[in-house]
Design goal:
The longest helix has 14 residues. The chain contains eight helices and twelve strands. It has two domains: about 100 residues, no CATH class; about 80 residues, no CATH class. It is globular, with a radius of gyration of 18 Å. It is about 35% helix and about 30% strand.
């Protein structure tokens, strides 16, 4: 989790639709969000994030909370600093073993989530999310549009690796609500910063 004394920079990118998949690497590597804590994973995704119950129940098949496999999303609690990883169905025995509520759940032993709600505090906090495979492709663009938090150095590395594509594919770039360009982003000192990154495309306008 990022330090509280980091400077927050706001980067808003308007990109051509074909460029969105480039940003999914950020989604898969992990990003932060400020949320209401003390809620169940279901309350977080279906309540705060607006994900439909049908999608949540049927598309998201594997969930890890702080490194522990989750079976009941109604009885797994999100706290400040929690780390959540979500995946669609994975193939083979590994996928079957870690699938929420699957018949092989008993094979996991000590790597299954178990915690009492009584020990979880409600409030405001920041969590880390990682989306994999089809979940990244399907949910990633919407989260990018709303805005995610990433470490400044990670954003700089991404911008450097994709500089030419960003120059060709960005319709607009705003840095802290001021118009900017790729060159300015590359010249910025991103040390000791976080980036609130918003990415929209023609498809999601």
């Amino acid at each position: 989790m990022a330090s509280l004394d980091l400077t927050m920079q706001h980067v808003r990118l308007g990109v051509k639709a074909y460029l969105i998949p480039r940003f999914l690497n950020i989604i898969e590597r992990g990003f932060n969000l400020k949320v209401k804590t003390g809620k169940s994973i279901r309350e977080l995704f279906c309540g705060q994030f607006g994900i439909s119950d049908d999608y949540f129940d049927n598309r998201i098949q594997t969930i890890f909370l702080d490194g522990k496999a989750v079976d009941s999303t109604d009885n797994a609690w999100v706290e400040n600093g929690s780390r959540l990883a979500l995946s669609a169905a994975m193939p083979g025995l590994v996928g079957a073993t870690f699938r929420k509520g699957g018949r092989y759940a008993s094979f996991r032993g000590t790597i299954s989530y178990s915690k009492s709600k009584k020990s979880v505090a409600r409030g405001e906090g920041e969590i880390t999310l990682k989306f994999f495979n089809m979940i990244a492709k399907e949910l990633g663009p919407a989260f990018l549009q709303k805005g995610i938090i990433v470490e400044g150095k990670r954003f700089k590395d991404f911008a450097q690796r994709n500089a030419e594509d960003l120059k060709a594919g960005c319709n607009s770039i705003h840095l802290n609500d001021e118009k900017a360009d790729v060159a300015r982003l590359l010249k910025m000192n991103w040390e000791n910063t976080e980036v609130f990154l918003q990415v929209t495309s023609e498809k999601y306008d």
